[in-house]
Write a structure and sequence with these properties.
Structural class: mainly alpha
Distance between the termini: 57 Å
Number of helices: 8
Radius of gyration: 18 Å
Strand content: under 5%
Number of domains: 2
Helix content: over 70%
CATH superfamily of the largest domain: RNA polymerase sigma factor, region 2, helix turn helix motif
Number of strands: 0
CATH architecture of the largest domain: Orthogonal Bundle
CATH topology of the largest domain: Rna Polymerase Sigma Factor, Chain: A
CATH class of the largest domain: Mainly Alpha
């Protein structure tokens, strides 16, 4: 059953279908907040907030549209509201990030990559997260950000270049420290 069909069932009052949506998206929502630099505990709270807001706004969802951009918009708004309250979000330690890997022992390159990601401005971090980690299509990202697909392509390209530069610099720094 598609996400949109599950939402339609929920709109008909069959709320038990919400657990299927939760199972599909809970990890993605939680990961989004963690990659945006929020602690595990706060990310868990914000994940619950997203699903609460989703249920509250259920009647406003148009089942002829795609669900994924809608939930991402709820996530972005929740993050923005949280950020305004917190003022400054400290990037969390690498150990606090939920990485989808069989082996939970992160290699050095993964550690450097995550640290590099944390050094990106939040807008670029979010683009990398959506495009490369969550594997969203440019069309979906464009819908969420309310920009043209070409703008998404250009912004992701710039964000990836910045990430590559950060990664290269951090890797050189680490290698220099290892030689000392």
């Amino acid at each position: 059953m598609s996400d949109e069909q599950l939402i339609a069932k929920m709109q008909e009052g069959q709320m038990e279908y919400g657990s299927l949506l939760y199972d599909r998206y809970q990890r993605k929502v939680f990961s989004y907040f963690c990659y945006m630099g929020i602690s595990k505990t706060e990310a868990e709270d914000l994940t619950q907030d997203v699903f609460f807001k989703l249920i509250k706004a259920l009647s406003s969802f148009d089942t002829n549209r795609k669900f994924k951009p809608w939930i991402y918009q709820i996530m972005r708004n929740t993050f923005r509201d949280f950020s305004k309250k917190k003022r400054k979000i400290e990037y969390q330690e690498i150990d606090d990030f939920p990485i989808d890997m069989e082996d939970h022992n992160l290699e050095l390159n993964h550690q450097i990559l995550l640290k590099s990601l944390g050094l990106l401005p939040p807008e670029q971090r979010e683009l990398v997260l959506m495009a490369k980690i969550q594997k969203m299509k440019q069309r979906e990202i464009a819908q969420i950000l309310n920009i043209e697909e070409n703008a998404v392509k250009a912004r992701v390209y710039r964000a990836m270049n910045t990430l590559k530069k950060q990664f290269g610099q951090l890797k050189m720094d680490y290698e220099r420290e290892e030689r000392i």
